[in-house]
Sequence to fold (317 residues):
Amino acid sequence: MDARLAETIESFDDSFARGLSEGLRRAQKEIPCKYFYDAEGSALFEAICALPEYYQTRTEVALLRRHAAEIAGLIGARAEIVEFGAGSARKVRILLDALESPHGYSPIDISGAYLRGVVQRLAADYPRLRLAPLAGDFTLPLQLPALAGAARRAGFFPGGTIGNFTPDAAMALLRRMREMLGGGGLLVGVDLVKDPALLHAAYNDAAGITAAFNKNLLARANRELAADFDLDAFAHYAPYNPKAQRIEMYLVSLKRQSARLPDGMVEFSAGEAIHTEDSHKYSIESFREIAARAGFSPRAVWTDENRLFSLHWLEAR
Ligand SMILES: C[S@@+](CC[C@H](N)C(=O)[O-])C[C@H]1O[C@@H](n2cnc3c(N)ncnc32)[C@H](O)[C@@H]1O
Fold:
């Protein structure tokens, strides 16, 4: 397992330079949000999950705990769980503990070095579970590692990560996941539309961890690519756009400046923004429509009493 994981980590890491250069040379500068996640970014995301303002993680964890037995029944015995964007793989432990004889677990994550540590801890805690980790980008065609002997495969896509895609791209991604899984079901966590003040607070925490997470894109470029971004000369800015029903995240240049990239300089005017992430919010109904367009039959859905977050069980048609 480790040699293959190391190989995928290595072949994968070099896309950041290209993504950064291309994104910063667009008329509207952007850096794709998948590049937030090197080992440092993954650790910062974990810190975000523990913030008082970040209701998503504790609400989704509570939903998983409350409905674990029912979810396990829907997934069935001897299943292989494929997780898209596994991060710390904390949430899947709730499923693994509830499932009947789980056969295997295949975490996919772009943050390869972080994934390696996560898999080591899982192997120690679940010695009978077959592990088939994959360092890679789940938006690209991926060959899922073969895990022989599972009775069925189920996808797991928690964390509201689906919100990082526009509704059309989310539909296309769900369709690709359905194909990758080869049928079966998908359990997906979706953040819901709500009071914009709550959303604003969640992405603008008092401790400044989300700001550090956002700026990690530039810090990562300095570390990995010998770029020379002045981190203090960019501001974290994350407003809610009620018309598009999404949080938009930017790094705003506080002055006229330039930065060195591996393939040349890039200029910023004062006030110019780099778009770094969108996080779309859905109603339960609008998400079920997208899932249906992607070829799933939306089945069970669970939400908390304040309707902050939702968990959807989708079955491939
Ligand atoms: C919002 S975090 C969610 C983490 C975890 N699933 C949770 O619910 O707490 C997104 C995760 O997906 C990974 N990720 C983001 N974009 C990805 C991509 N295109 N391909 C693979 N992994 C990706 C990140 O490294 C990160 O671990």
Notes: The first helix runs from residue 2 to 12.
